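Posting for a labmate who doesn't have an account.
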Amino acid sequence: MFNSKTIVYTSGTFDMFHTNHLKMINYARGLADILIVGVSTDELVSSYKAPPIIPFNERFQIIEALKATDIVIPQHTLDHTEIVKKLHIDAFVVGDDWNGKYDYLEEMGVKVFYFPYGNGVSSSSLKKTIHDTYEQHLKAVQQTKPETIKKEK
């Protein structure tokens, strides 16, 4: 706590921003007097999974535009030790798909909350839905107007 204010940090890729992202940020907001949100850089994300669809600067601007956020910073590493020390973080909120990964922060006096996404929307599921829907529409167009598709190519 800093001057009796609870500082909460949450972070993520926030690719293809969706309702579960918003729910997690709002949950973190509810715990915080000051909410700091880290947005993972493209380089960081690419180090452990496929690169984001939405570029870093656009994801950053989306998170900055939310009324729930006080401060938005780039996140360059999955190790939050330095951020916790530099910003005097009291609590950390992350999706439960990272369950157990940040327990080490508890040893630093940080309360860790693994937010339950549950079933439903995720950036991965959105990508799959968009891909599958596009494929279905393309097949439907090809069946109804095969000569148009040949001319477009």
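Reply:
Got it, the structure tokens are right above this. The chain has two domains: 7-120, 122-153.
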